[in-house]
Amino acid sequence: MRGVIAAGAPTTAEAGARILERGGNAVDAAVAACFATAVGEPTLTSLAGGGMILYRDGHSGEAVVCDCFADVPRTPAADVAGLDFRAVDLDFGPTTQRFYIGRGSAAVPGVIPGLCTALERWGSLPLGEVVRPACEMLREGRPLGPYQGRAAKLLDPILTHSAAGRRIFAPHGRIIAAGDRFRLPELADTLEAMARQGWQEHYRQAMVPAMLAQFGPAHGGLLTPADLDGYQIVFREPLELSYRQIQVLTVPPPHIGGSMICLMLGLLAQERLGSLPLQGTAHALRLCCAMQVADEARTEAARALVGRSFEGWHRRFAELVAAGSLGAAPSPGGPGSTTHVSAIDAAGTACAVTFSYGEGNGYFIGDTGIAMNNLMGEEDLHPAGFGRAPGGTRLATMMAPTLLVEGDGSVTAMGTGGANRIRSAIVQVVSLLCDFGLGPEPAVAAPRVHFEKGELNAEMFGRDDGGASLAALGAAKLVRFDEPNLFFGGVHLVRRAPDGTLSGAGDPRRGGVCRVVE
């Protein structure tokens, strides 16, 4: 077998699989798949967003996080006369959620520098070969999948905000829908020019001027030459935790998702979860209590993992479990427009990539075919309020691509979109794999819960008691989902067993697909 890849759409996975078939490694395949999200998952992410890449070498075991998330522009929003920063309400059915778009919502993007840098450092194929599958698909077009169709309908007010957006996403006078063929040949031109000229040269000569021309202070935006020239990829040592004697590797501070995952797993490690009835009251209670403690410890989650600080949070966890019920005030949340790609090759090298553009800010970068992010308008990324993050610093993200390394040589790579549900989705899948011995597909497909600030969101399918055990927990608000729902993320997971067998699962909640290449 040459490798395995899991991603959020058949087209995305196909691009990575083609690269594995040509002899590329896991990084080549993951990067190819990420470029192909532009046609396979065009409403969920963009090459002008921010991301996180977790890499592990199959021979040496070296693991590195490539942080290519977005920077805060140096220009204070208060200094921009006529700042283009406007609210838009999206209809999620049972609730609406407000987002902020416009030129002033663009943060300094990092996805293209991150993907290309990772490819140069760890890949085995040239950029031109890696982007070829995406370019062919962008020119030929691919049918939009059901999940993408639903996402397009939801994001219609943003996708069609500008003339360029209407031309791309509503070419027939209506928003694209499932089954429509989506094409974006101008992006294929951009990717081919990057490969031909060298990505750094093309980025500096074509992309940067176009971003400044549209998203600078003179046009209601925040970006300046200093922001784009000063952007740096940061390589970080992964955060590490032992859970059931399995090494867990994830994203370290200053980002918060990985720290919260490790804190939850550290709390759950004290419990004999595997002896509890799966999906029962006692099981759900412990998951929810761990989520509540991690939320309470959010600002110091990394420090909470060690010494006396961890002991204090463990006591808090024990108190909540002993109380046997949940409480506090509800806090709704939307689905989070983020996607993930996981790949492992025959040598055991693993690459997990999560990236997002928020919901997009309604505009495209010149004639590149690349939608600009609205990460300065994402409330989850600005807990202290808009305009308070220091200029020139990294935004802190919940993204947390994660690896599991077992003593027998097994390696599992996973990650998910889903905003504040990223941490809870990953913890539940890790627990199902490690505590209950489930395989990739049942672990990913199992019903999930997410508890935060008194609101218990829960998938009810597959529960023998119809959800009575969850109702008994006494949350301030119980939100029932009768079917698998995109709210709970999309965990795309791949695994290499000690004998070299490859497997995985794409999360059906977000149109996930897994491809094993022999």
Structure notes:
This protein is of the alpha+beta class. The chain has 2 domains: 28-53 and 71-230 and 359-381, no CATH class; 236-334 and 400-517, Gamma-glutamyltranspeptidase, small (S) subunit (Glutamine Phosphoribosylpyrophosphate, subunit 1, domain 1, 4-Layer Sandwich). 34% of the residues lie in helices and 19% in strands. The chain has 16 helices and 20 strands. The strands form 5 sheets. A 7-stranded antiparallel sheet has the order 8-3-2-12-11-1-20, covered by helices on one side. A 6-stranded antiparallel sheet has the order 9-10-13-14-18-19. The radius of gyration is 22 Å and the shape is globular. 57% of the residues are buried. The model is unreliable at 329-336 (pLDDT under 50).
The percent range for helix content is 25-40%
CATH H-tier superfamily of the largest domain: Gamma-glutamyltranspeptidase, small (S) subunit
**What is the total tally of β strands?**
20
Discrete helix count: 16
Number of domains: 2
Q: What is the overall silhouette?
A: globular
> How far apart lie the N and C ends?
4 Å
- Largest beta sheet: what is the strand line-up? 8-3-2-12-11-1-20
**Mean model confidence by pLDDT:** 92
Main beta sheet: 7 strands, antiparallel
Radius of gyration: 22 Å
What is the CATH topology descriptor of the largest domain?
Glutamine Phosphoribosylpyrophosphate, subunit 1, domain 1
